[in-house]
Amino acid sequence: MFEEREVVGTREEGADGARTGKADVTDARARRAWRIPLSFLIARYFFYVLAALAGVWLVAFTAFSMTLNAGLVYSANYGAAHANEAIAAVQEAGSVNEANIPSAYRYAHVAHDGTVLATDLSAERLRRALDATTSFRSEGTSSPQTFGMEGTTYSVGKLADGTFCILTSTYMPEYTTRELRDTLPNPQNLMIAAGCAGSALAVALIARRASSVLTGKMLPLTDAAERIGKEELDFAVGTSNVRQIDDVLAAMERMRYSLADSLEARWRAEQAQRDQIAALAHDLKTPLTVVCANAEFVAEEMQDLTKLGACNQLANSAFSDVAAAAQDAAQGCKQVDRYVQLLIEASRGKAAEGARQRIDAASLAEHLEREVVPLARTTGVELRVIRDDALGGASVFIEAQAVERAVANVVSNAVDHARSRVRIAFSLAEHDKGSARALAIDVEDDGPGFSPAALEHGCERFFRDDASRTGAASGTHYGIGLFAAAETARNHNGTIELANLTNPDGSIRGARVTLQLPLA
What we know:
Blueprint: E1 3-5, E2 12-13, E3 19-20, E4 33-35, H1 38-69, E5 73-74, H2 78-81, H3 83-93, E6 106-110, E7 116-119, H4 123-139, E8 145-149, E9 152-158, E10 164-170, E11 174-175, H5 178-183, H6 187-229, H7 243-308, H8 313-347, E12 357-360, H9 361-379, E13 382-387, E14 395-398, H10 400-417, E15 421-430, E16 437-445, H11 452-457, H12 481-491, E17 495-502, E18 508-518
Parallel strand pairs: 13-15
Antiparallel strand pairs: 1-4, 2-3, 5-11, 6-7, 6-10, 8-9, 9-10, 12-14, 15-16, 16-18, 17-18
């Protein structure tokens, strides 16, 4: 029934001879311990219940016996055994009254003609008492007679005045006084009720004690589960002297150790990955700096040549185009440099959500226009930007860089799929999430539009739909741009909506992406 055990953990020797790897499962498990089976614990409390019930009923029976011995209660057979004596006492007294009738009996005083003179019987028992009187009269005897009907005895005797006295009794104990008999429950019923109440109380107390003990023995389980759930793995799982519970605790200790190893290995892998990304991003900054500096130099030189008028008008136009392209390249390099810096910070675990600030809606629209114009210029797509005059005075509370990246992603997607033109409109509209006003940014293109699947899932991570918006540029899309824009919108309590532009005949003439940001 009891088990003696000794658990020894395993250790691994490191290269330097020091002990590393797995330690003992716990210090407590490294020493001998007596463990009891759970069935023994349950059987123990079952025995407690039986003992408590036996004790309760023993007390109840003892108390009942004491009342009998003290003369407070008549025994169950008292009425039947002393019926003739009670009738004789009434005959000797010559009258029927409660004073000369023991409380073990209920009575009826009946005249010779059957009239009931006095009684404390119920209607049903009175009817049977009258039947017993009739039977007594038919026998023509003067000696008391006893009749039994449905568990009740009816003793009949004739008095000197010609009337009849009927005493009834049952095989139940009764109090020796009428006051107690008429006030309290029957002694036997009272004993049974007290025994049942005591039994219920004893079982409840033992159950509460058993619950408390089991809860205490399972505390190491709940504590270990909670701490493992919170990924707090730097602790030793406790022990229990109950075999089955202790086996579960030992399994949880092994799980904790394995999970700690797994999390540590994952952390090391992630740290190595972050270090590698940081190193690559840092190495990327050097060529970016060179490209950016040279692009700015070319742009400045071309602008100087144009101002000097060193060439003819056609050459000046070409120089202007080259200068604009170089300026766009320099601006793009600066953006990439900012993104690389964010990547380095993220790899070091220092990246956080940018600070939000209140920005004038008109100024934001103007800034976004400057940022997206180079996207269209590099592909030869016509870009038309419309800014609503109502933007003046309105403002938004946003993280500027995040919104800038979101709009750039949407415009880049439109430029890649447009046939010849892209239209961007900045306006104020009713917010889709309520009655508040919002800044609406509509980006339209004249491409093939979205497929039904793209309209439903286009903003999901890594969604790519070959059935829609296909073309040479489709191979460079990885289902991230619209997802990132949608995440930015949600982070600002805004919305993003995909739709198709249609001709009067129902044919698709392009696509539209609407980004809404609530006004501050």
